[in-house]
Amino acid sequence: MNIKSFLSKGVANIISGFSGSLLSLVTVPIITKSLLNDELSIWFICLQISGFMMMLSFGAKLIFTRHVSQYPENKKRINKILSTCRTILNRMCILGSIATILIVIFLPYLYEIPKEILLQARFSLLIITSAMILMSWVSDLHGVLWGSNKNEKSALIILATRFLQIIAIYVCSKISPSLEFFSIAYSLPIILSSLFLVFYIRRKYVIFDKFKYTKTLTQDNNVKSEMYTLGLWSVATMLVQGIDVIVVSFYSFSDVPSYSIASTIIFFFLGLINGLFSPLIQWVARKSINDANAPKNFILKINKYYIPFLGVVFLIIYFTSEYFINLWVGSNYHNAILFLKILSAGLLIRSIFLPLSFIIISQGEQNKIKSSPMLEALLNLFFSIILGYKFGAIGVALGTLISSVLITLAMIFYYCSHLDFIKKHTSKVKLSYLYNIIYVVIIILLVIIIG
Question: What is the domain range of residue 288?
Answer without folding.
Answer: 3-450
